[in-house]
Amino acid sequence: MKYLEIYSSLKKSIEKREFSADHRIPSEPELCDRFGVARNTVRQALALLLSQGLIEKHKGKGSFITPKGERKTSVIGLLIPDFSSASFFSSLKSELENNAAKLGYRVRLETSRRTTDDEIVKSIRKAARKLAVDRVEGVIFRPHLNPEHIDANKEILSIFQHTKTPVVLIDSDISPRPERSDCDLVAVDNVCAGRRIAAHLLDNGRTKIAFMMSGVEISSNANWENRLFGIAGEVAVRGMDDGVSTLRFPPDDTESLRVLFRSRRRPDAIACGNDRAAAMLVESLKAIGKRVPEDVAVTGFDDESFARSSVPPLTTIRQPAGLIAKTAFKTLLARIRYPQNDHREILLDAPLIIRKST
After folding, report:
1. What CATH number corresponds to the domain at position 167?
2. Range of the domain at 236
3. How is the beta sheet containing 167-170 ordered, strand by strand?
4. Is residue 358 within 8 Å of residue 200, measured between CB atoms?
5. For the CA atoms of the chain, what is the radius of gyration?
6. Residue among 337, 292, 276 nearest 137 (CA)
7. pLDDT for 175 beyond 90
8. pTM
9. Where does the pLDDT of residue 39 fall: very low under 50, low under 70, confident under 90, or very high at 90 and above?
10. How far apart are alpha carbons 53 and 66 in whole angstroms?
């Protein structure tokens, strides 16, 4: 099919920026002479470029490369500040690469290998600028979760907005709830996941649920708050008068745990914001003589690999890495092609994986 060969040739020329400084591509008669074909065949090739948003027609002037066409690098940026903090991100990257490769795109990961929060923020800001300068076609961005870094997230987003680089957020918005930013967001439904955890615990006879707001590396954030809302909501609709208590000390603080279990508010179930906090909490409970799950049920979140090998294995919510990657990529492609579309919030289902910790 000759028009596809012409389309492919013109597309490569656009990617290599081989056309004139005014971004005008050769006229239809010029292309007919160049490829030795009829005008209708050239028009079929141009129509395909037009449908993909790589060129636009100016009446009486010809066809010109669009800003999207100028940006055509076939590279998608993946910006995750704490990529090494969870195996979930590795799975997400692999799935994203598989989906991107099918359509001829490459994925470029940018992360931070720094240790302190300030260093991480600085390096991610620099990485964002480099992605923008290198004209990636779009970016999938997982914001900093620390509530203190809201301004840093907004600054990073402004870098991409300045260069008109399409962005899809994953896992968390850059604006604290209940506000929403002007970005597409793909994440699990944390409120529903919280309700699912609470329903499981209540159905198994637990009556005093606590939520641990502190973790190993991070503490309270918008995602964790939504999980708490879900747990508290399920408890409330079931008419449990005591509600849900919040624990604001680290999971390895055994002294605070001893004090807690001597009080009237001692829980018989503790939900944690992630699996790392849950695994550490299990060890701390053992250290103060509490059995899991006989005395206290414990749940995590993410379903990291060690959740299965923990003793006892952790009941947790599984982050659907493959579905998040696929949905984020499709959403980014739609944003690239239709930049004026309304922004969307896509919340995905996350299953409860029941194991012996409950």
Report:
1. 3.40.50.2300
2. 190-317
3. 106-110, 75-79, 138-141, 167-170, 184-188, 345-348
4. yes
5. 25
6. 337
7. no
8. 0.80
9. very high
10. 7
Phi, psi of 250 (to 5 degrees): -65, 155
Would you say 183 and 258 are in contact if contact means Cβ atoms under 8 Å apart?
Answer: no
Residue 353 included in any domain: no
Task: Answer yes or no: do 83 and 124 share one domain.
Answer: yes
Helix (H, G, I), strand (E, B) or coil at 65: strand
Averaged pLDDT, 147-157? 90
Q: Decide if 175 contacts 147 (C-beta within 8 A).
A: no
What are 317's strand-pairing partners? 352
Q: Which residues contact 22 (CB under 8 A, 6 or more apart)?
A: 64
- Which range (13-22, 75-84, 232-241) has the least confidence? 13-22
CB 46 within 8 A of CB 54: no
Using 50, 70 and 90 to split pLDDT, how confident is the model at 177? confident
Contacts of 43 (CB under 8 A, 6+ apart): 28
Instruction: Calculate the alpha carbon distances from 257 to 249, 252, 265, 267 in Å.
Output: 9, 9, 11, 10
CA dist., res. 356 & res. 314, Å (int): 6
Residues ≥6 apart with Cβ < 8 Å to 287:
254
> Would 300 be classed as within a structural domain?
yes
Q: What is the CATH number of the domain that holds 26?
A: 1.10.10.10
* H or E segment and range at residue 265: none
Quick one: which H or E segment has residue 253? none
In the predicted model, what is the mean pLDDT of residues 12-20? 77
Least confident of 59-68, 133-142, 167-176, 196-205: 59-68
Res 71: pLDDT: 64
**Which secondary-structure segment (H or E) carries 352?**
strand 352-353
Give 228's pLDDT tier (boundaries 50, 70, 90): very high
- Could you list the beta-strand ranges (E) of 50-120: 55-58, 62-65, 75-79, 106-110
For the residues of 214-249, what is the DSSP string, one character each? B-SS-B--HHHHHHHHHHHHHHHHTT-TT--EEE-S
Q: Do 196 and 157 belong to one domain?
A: no
